[in-house]
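Question (not urgent): is this output format expected?
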Amino acid sequence: MSFRCELKRYAAYFRGWCQAFGEIDNELEGANGITWLLAEDQVGLILPDQLRREVYKQVLRKKAKTNVLTVSDSYFQLGDTGFDVSSNEVQEYLSGLLCAFTVSQALHLYLTYHLTYPSGTRFVTISKKAPLRIIYKEIEPMIIRIQ
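Got this back:
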């Protein structure tokens, strides 16, 4: 069984601006060099350079190349780009976060940072909470398909 919902996307008004991720509950090294940051109502991904450029092009631009994000128990798929969710802990956490759809809450996608990471490190963040309106503007939404 699968279902589809809207994923609201946000871009910063000024290049490089973003809000802090907040308190990190757990940090996990996943497959493909991806670092997963888990918090109460959000998940962040630190992506390796090549994957980061591709994901930014497909997800964080106003006119995104891809408008569907597919999430399953074991992978994320954005158009031609996919990556494994190999950790059981990450899978369990994502399942809990994505349960927001069953209670009709929106999910939001935007970039964040954290002071404990090197300057310039950005996280692709999926959150139950909308970002600060003073920093971000809403852009075209995406569809998230959960399988």
